[in-house]
Write a structure and sequence with these properties.
Blueprint (H helix, E strand, L loop, with lengths): L2 H24 L4 H32 L7 E5 H18 L3 E6 L3 E5 H18 L5 E9 L2 E9 L32 H11 L3 E7 L2 E9 L7
Parallel strand pairs: 2-4
Antiparallel strand pairs: 1-3, 4-5, 5-7, 6-7
Helix pairs in contact: 1-2, 2-5, 3-4, 4-5
């Protein structure tokens, strides 16, 4: 993992914490002002915690320390269950979540699989305009199960597409916000899917960004 990138990503929230605390201690403040300072610091601490947890997860994955807990799962059912966690956010953003397609079985780790779907849905919600729809389709294609997540919005330039799954990569670093994390979400998606002997691809054209996940299917009649 790129140590320079790690240091850079950690430096920003740590600098924010130190600066905010120094400013807060510089003058006497009201109780409400101290409360606001603590909330602001908590946001930075939560960002740091998530970043460190994600980096630890990737390091463990890279070194073969994470072992999937294999279960027979209905892929569409897992998508529908993950939707429930995003319904309120989607409603607030005036975005519709839609799922369609087949009932396809896969052998997978439920928590890892839901993390993949959550990361991609979170990404889609971030860039989908109001009053639009994010479409998720599950289908069996030969001996593969595919999840396609499509969202309308500003496209991703073609030259950025091969780098999207790189750690810490952002299409537009100048637009980084705390809510956007450290650019590790898609790297985690790729590592999980590869641990399941699958692959993930991305395309962006005609105002639609599309992520396609492919996983080996599991025949109901097989052992």
């Amino acid at each position: 993992m790129d140590h320079f990138n790690i240091a850079h990503e950690l430096r920003t929230p740590l600098t924010n914490l130190a600066t905010q605390t120094q400013v807060g201690l510089g003058l006497a403040r009201t109780l409400e002002e101290y409360r606001e300072l603590l909330y602001s610091n908590l946001e930075e601490q939560e960002r740091l915690t998530k970043m460190v947890n994600d980096m630890l997860w990737l390091a463990q994955s890279e070194n073969g320390l994470l072992k999937p807990n294999w279960e027979l799962l209905d892929l569409r059912q897992e998508v529908e269950a993950t939707f429930e966690f995003f319904e309120a956010l989607a409603e607030d953003k005036k975005i519709t979540l839609a799922v369609g397609g087949d009932r396809v079985n896969v052998m997978a780790d439920r928590s890892m699989l839901r993390r993949v779907i959550s990361n991609l849905l979170s990404n889609a919600l971030r860039y989908t305009p109001e009053n639009e729809t994010i479409n998720v389709t599950v289908e069996g294609v030969g001996n593969q199960a595919q999840i396609t997540i499509e969202n309308p919005g500003q496209g991703i330039p073609e030259d950025h597409l091969p780098k999207l799954f790189d750690r810490f990569y952002r299409v537009d670093p100048s637009r980084q916000r705390q809510s956007e994390g450290a650019g590790l979400g898609l790297a985690i998606v790729k590592s999980i899917i590869e641990a399941h002997d699958g692959n993930v691809e991305v395309s962006s054209e005609m105002g639609t960004t599309r992520f396609v996940i492919s996983l080996p299917t599991h025949d109901k009649n097989a052992g």
